[in-house]
Amino acid sequence: MIDRAEPTSSPAAPSPWNIANALTVLRILLVPVFLILLLADGGQDVTMRWWALAVFLLAMATDKVDGDLARKYNLITDFGKIADPIADKSLMAAALIGLALIAEIPWWVPVIILVRELGITVLRFFMIRTAVMPASRGGKIKTVLQTVAIGLFLLLFPLAAVIPDPAASVLLVVAWVILIAAIIVTVVTGIDYCLQAAKLAKGENRD
């Protein structure tokens, strides 16, 4: 007897119009809102600084939630793959540049971090033609350290108005320790990506 069973069809690709992508778009839209709040009155408006911190934390929360939703409910789309890193890097760039503009961190900090981020993004783009570069093991640690450090620097000014000076000084030291750790991990993971790319390119040339 001839088996006439119908061939199984592959599952339909998820629509880009989903909640995970909506949260990613929201994060992108929050970037200019955050920057306006941070830079209000040269960064000296305590109320606006609290709001800037709240918007930053909200935006970072959407980064966690949209990723979880996309994986749990199979909402991963090509749009999300492109928009999510753009949203993340835009928020980090806005925070670092904004803090430098109001002189709360020196300019060399955003220069080092953003040059690394841009460089690795460009490197990944060119390596797509040969092989997919796996995520660095320290990538998540880098993101956590950067987020905590930026959050603390955003908190310093408004919190200094309501806590004793010694406590504010301790918080400043903690913020700097975490920021330096973030910079070190950022540079190390950047070097790791470059080494991965070199190995992949060497293997491609041998083929």
Structure description:
The protein is mainly α. The protein has one domain (19-202): Four Helix Bundle (Hemerythrin (Met), subunit A), CATH 1.20.120. 75% of the residues lie in helices and 0% in strands. It is built from six helices and no strands. Helix 3 runs antiparallel to helix 4 and helix 5 packs antiparallel against helix 6. The model has no long low-confidence stretch (mean pLDDT 85).
Outline the low-pLDDT stretches: none
What is the CATH top level name?
Mainly Alpha
Could you state the order of secondary-structure elements as H and E? HHHHHH
- Overall residue-averaged pLDDT value: 85
Strand content: under 5%
Q: What is the radius of gyration? A: 21 Å
Helix content: over 70%
Distance between the termini: 47 Å
- The CATH architecture name reads Up-down Bundle
The figure for the number of domains is: 1
Tally of alpha and pi helices: 6
The general outline is: globular
> What is the number of beta strands?
0
Largest sheet: none
CATH topology: Four Helix Bundle (Hemerythrin (Met), subunit A)
Structural key phrases:
mainly alpha; Four Helix Bundle (Hemerythrin (Met), subunit A)
Offer a concise description of the structure.
The protein has one domain: Four Helix Bundle (Hemerythrin (Met), subunit A) (Up-down Bundle), CATH 1.20.120. Helices cover 75% and strands 0% of the residues. The protein contains six helices and no strands.
Task: Record the SSE blueprint.
Elements: H1 19-39, H2 46-72, H3 78-101, H4 108-127, H5 139-160, H6 165-206
Helix pairs in contact: 1-2, 1-3, 2-3, 2-5, 3-4, 3-5, 4-6, 5-6
